[in-house]
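Letters spell out the chain; the tokens describe the backbone. To illustrate:

===
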Amino acid sequence: MDRLDGRVCLVTGASSGIGRAIAGLFAAEGAVVVCADRRADPVEGGETTVDLVRRAGGRAQEVLVDLGGPEAAAGLVDAAVAEHGRLDVLVNNAATYVSKPLLDTTLAEWEHVFAVNVTAVFLLTQAAVRHMLTREPDAFGVRGRIVNVSSQHGFVGAPLDIAYGTSKSAVVYLSRQVATDYGHSGIVCNGVAPGKIMTGKGGREDDPDWVRRWQERSPYPRLGRPDDVAHAALFLASDEARYISGENLMVDGGWSAS
């Protein structure tokens, strides 16, 4: 239980769902977790992520920030470094979506999805890499690790998700390009791509027809849970993934394989 012992990890979208599970697991593995989100209360209910971590004996800091604004995204890494002295792992998890097809999606909706899902990831990754390059490499030659939460929808088409799916395709490519450009300097960058994850946030997962279609489509006997994605992210953030970079690990119960 010490795969991230003493490391400083910044997790965006940490108040709910997948981000909440990642923050909790990273803290349980010894990390100091900076939990960034535009709200503190989890959408699915319950205590805040920071309170949950601290009650379990972990270390966490709460930062309320709206990543839809480029200034907020650009300054988040610098603020974390100023507070904790360094940043070892960045997890770009925060995302938003508009469940509309092409002809119903407005330019304003498209731009908002890309501001959060792509531009914020670009700015946070840029700031993180800039900081990580100033550090000495560890025993494995690594100066820092970045885990981007992409999506199954970044690889396959899906109903009503033109803006979200396209934005997640951009995150997939960004992960590969950062790994390509900065791997020789000790920057490890990977993505984890969730499939149908039941987060408790409502929306389509409260619709029995959607859930039935997902389950019928999936070869796995159940749909995903946030902790399924969190364990994949932990692997990519740890020294166990010592020779893996530029990959997007599918966490979809075999959906994309069938």
